[in-house]
Design a protein that fits this description.
The protein is mainly beta. The protein is built from one helix and eight strands; from the N terminus they run H-E-E-E-E-E-E-E-E. The radius of gyration is 26 Å and the shape is elongated. About 4% of the residues have low confidence.
């Protein structure tokens, strides 16, 4: 009888121990999308949102779209327009959780991100007669980003990145008043393209950097 009770007790104890292990054995909820906000964009003259989609292991597709002029700061030239970015991320240094060294999603770690960018907007300027006119800027670029993304509690994503590449702009500003500054190239009058910085077509180098915050979705 004692042996039977001991066997039953051992079985119950083993079952309880297994039940305690079930939560850790339960696979996490995999999320394969992120909706993002470029956190400081309203302070730089635009409002930009992003989207990232898991594709295959360690590779994701990413894109951004923004409204130029939707800003918390005053824009002297009253720029209005839109911007777009698109590319693919290649995570080469993924972060892992310590629970069996499992990686719960494809959005963690350092990455390399080639990006195509475009921005188009109108802006105010003064012509040779001192009359206010409206000009246009269209800019394209190919940038190579390096960045890192952190995922907190499988819910929030924080991303920091910077990049450099090539850019070119077409600026239309009839009878622009060159007396307003030492300008040899019209692209110089609007070096900040909102999607990136490109000082001049003479040296078509472009720069970009940013900080994004996002929410992971299934």
């Amino acid at each position: 009888m004692k042996r039977s009770l001991l066997a039953i007790a051992l079985i119950l104890i083993s079952r309880l121990m297994m039940a305690q292990d079930i939560p850790s054995m339960t696979p996490p909820v995999f999320k394969d999308r992120i909706v993002k906000l470029q956190f400081f964009s309203p302070l730089t003259g635009n409002l930009t949102f992003g989207y990232e989609q898991a594709l295959i292991k360690s590779i994701t597709l990413t894109g951004e779209a923004g409204i130029i002029g939707a800003s918390l700061v005053h824009l002297d030239a009253h720029q209005k327009g839109f911007l777009m970015k698109a590319g693919a991320k290649f995570y080469f240094s993924p972060d892992y959780y310590l629970d069996g060294m499992k990686r719960y999603n494809d959005f963690q770690g350092a990455y390399f991100n080639p990006v195509l960018v475009y921005s188009g907007f109108g802006f105010d300027y003064y012509d040779n007669n001192g009359k206010k006119q409206r000009g246009t800027n269209n800019s394209f670029g190919l940038l190579l980003h390096l960045g890192k993304q952190w995922v907190i509690s499988n819910v929030i994503a924080l991303e920091l990145y910077g990049g450099i590449g090539y850019g070119y702009s077409w600026v239309s500003a009839n009878e622009y008043s060159y007396s307003a500054g030492n300008v040899t190239d019209l692209s110089e009058i609007q070096p900040y393209k909102f999607s990136h910085i490109q000082p001049s077509n003479d040296v078509p180098i472009a720069f970009d950097a940013g900080f994004n915050i996002g929410i992971l979705l299934k």
